[in-house]
Write a structure and sequence with these properties.
This protein has about 525 residues and is of the alpha/beta class. The protein has three domains: about 80 residues, SRP54, nucleotide-binding domain (Four Helix Bundle (Hemerythrin (Met), subunit A)), CATH 1.20.120; about 190 residues, P-loop containing nucleotide triphosphate hydrolases (Rossmann fold, 3-Layer(aba) Sandwich); about 220 residues, 434 Repressor (Amino-terminal Domain) (Orthogonal Bundle), CATH 1.10.260.30. The chain has an eight-stranded mixed sheet, sandwiched between helices.
Length: about 525
């Protein structure tokens, strides 16, 4: 998400911070590069002009240019204007109406409208504990109704029974009545789409809206379509009146133009973004957090929230207690690798950490990533319980058997064992360290055992204001409490975090991250 734009803007703005004193011409030159970067990201021209004008107006004043850190001041201004362009404060889907609350889903064919309908229904069911009914109004696309019914079974949400021969308006009225009689909290109406905008599509959507009076009208748009998505939003808003936007495929190679343009051009908030194919790959859109990611400042708040949702508290507590005793076998390592996968993989986690842009790029070029972790998990799965508990049992014959069973090689098994030894040594060191560093890291995710660093609140008990304050604190180099126990396994030598981002542990040195010796990091002293 925003990968290319983030790289360009980070490079441009970091050049300002290295200059020291700035002149008005320095700022104008940087803004010309910013303008070019935004246009290359397919941001609408009117939005680019407005963005650069706002930054220039605030950045060329004497108060900024003559300040002690003018480069940092300009970056803050760019960040503030970027947040404002993206919508300022994030808005969630509103359910403040008499149930059943109708939610009308509109958009072009192929934008991911039906899948997004199921994702939102699952989110409302799981997180908000709402009783949801889904209904497909698509009478034209073959098997469209059957598709929604299958998705409903997958996410555990009821769908309206299919009755052949009914029009979209008749189905919509039947869905609202079924929602009322069945005691549903929300009724989601998935309308038909077209390959392109046409009068028949708009007329049908307008008729459905008039018949159901939806509380929310959400446009589902493909983020990869760039400025075409903006034209689609304008057309739907002018005809049916949108209340929000759902952007799909934000996990692809999207340049970010649609997200930056749609909010500014239509004035409608982006409420949700799809970040993958799975039914739970849906996130709320927070302008301040997205702006921080674009400028390479990380997104610790989202990382903490994602960890709170994905971590098994009981398993984490048991693991933390074992680690506190210096115990760390291959089953523990497997649990940490799986936890990393649940949180979006190592690339996704590093993308949310402040100042990790360079390390993330080094990681990508090294060939080490989530595929490597999957092979490691497969290798551990091919071991017997005794072998996982005592890796010293793994001699050549056993390694060959494990390699054959997991589709890996003996060399890869050796690397896995070497990594495990490094991580196990780190756990022993941390368990002996005065002050309980392991407990401090673990308790950030509710793992217990030692408390947080001085002055650091428990994120599980934070309100939104405190979470935002945590983001600012960590962005200023306040440490990296969000590591799962064992750190980031599998990083090659040279992939290092910025200074101050990792705890300094006795007995661990070299390049790479703590506890990873040999080819995965520095040499262990």
């Amino acid at each position: 998400m925003f990968g290319t734009l983030s790289d360009r803007l980070s490079g441009i703005l970091s050049g300002l911070t290295r200059r020291g004193a700035l002149t008005e011409e320095d700022v104008n030159a940087a803004l010309r590069e910013v303008r070019r970067a935004l246009l290359e990201a397919d941001v609408a021209l009117e939005v680019v002009r407005s963005f650069t004008d706002k930054v220039r107006e605030r950045a060329v004043g004497a108060e900024v240019l003559k300040s002690i850190t003018p480069g940092q001041q300009v970056i803050k201004i760019v960040n503030d204007v970027l947040i404002d362009t993206l919508g300022g404060e994030g808005e969630a889907i509103s359910l403040a109406s008499v149930p059943p609350v109708p939610i009308l889903m509109v958009g072009l064919q192929g934008s991911g409208k039906t899948t997004s309908t199921a994702k939102i229904a699952k989110r409302l069911t799981d997180r908000d504990k709402k009783k949801v009914l889904m209904a497909s109004l698509d009478t034209r696309r073959p098997a469209a109704m059957e598709q929604l019914a299958i998705l409903g079974q997958q996410v555990g949400v009821q769908t309206l029974p299919i009755v052949a021969g009914q029009s979209a308006v008749q189905i919509a009225r039947r869905a609202i009545e079924a929602g009322r009689l069945g005691g549903y909290d929300v009724v989601m109406l998935d309308t038909a789409g077209r390959v392109t905008l046409d009068e028949a599509l708009m007329a049908e959507v307008a008729e459905v809206k008039a018949a159901t009076d939806p509380h929310e009208v959400l446009l589902v748009a493909d983020a990869l379509t760039g400025q075409d998505a903006v034209n689609t939003a304008r057309a739907f808003d002018g005809r049916v009146g949108l209340t929000g936007i759902v952007l799909t495929r934000m996990d692809g190679d999207s340049r970010g133009g649609a997200a930056l343009s749609m909010r500014a051009v239509t004035g409608k908030p982006i409420k949700l973004v799809g970040t993958g194919e799975k039914t739970d790959a849906l996130e709320e859109f927070h302008p301040s957090r997205v702006a921080n990611r674009i400028l390479g400042m990380g997104d610790i708040v989202s990382l903490v929230e994602k960890a709170a949702l994905t971590i098994d508290a009981e398993q984490a507590q048991a693991t933390a207690q074992r680690m506190a005793k210096g115990q760390f076998d291959l089953s523990d390592m497997r649990a940490q690798l799986q936890q990393m996968e649940k949180m979006g993989g190592i690339g996704g986690v590093m993308g949310m950490l402040p100042g990790m842009k360079q390390a993330q790029a080094q990681l990508a070029s090294s060939g080490v990533g989530d595929k490597m972790f999957k092979r490691m998990i497969a290798a551990i799965d091919s071991m017997t319980p005794a072998e996982r508990k005592n890796p010293d049992l793994l001699k050549n014959s056993r390694k060959k058997r494990i390699a054959a069973g997991s589709g890996t090689s003996a060399e890869q098994i050796n690397k896995l064992l070497k990594m495990h030894r490094g991580m196990a040594d780190m756990m022993k060191t941390m368990s002996k360290q005065k002050g309980g560093m392991l407990g401090k890291l673990g308790s950030m995710f509710g793992l217990g055992g030692g408390g947080l660093p001085p002055g650091m609140p428990d994120p599980s008990k934070m309100d939104p204001a405190q979470l935002e304050a945590l983001q600012k604190q960590l962005g200023a180099g306040g440490g990296l409490p969000s590591l799962p126990p064992g750190g980031f396994p599998g990083l090659p030598k040279g992939v290092t975090p910025p200074a101050g981002m990792m705890p300094k542990l006795p007995g661990l040195g070299g390049g790479g991250l703590p506890g990873l010796g040999g080819p995965f990091g520095g040499k262990k002293k």
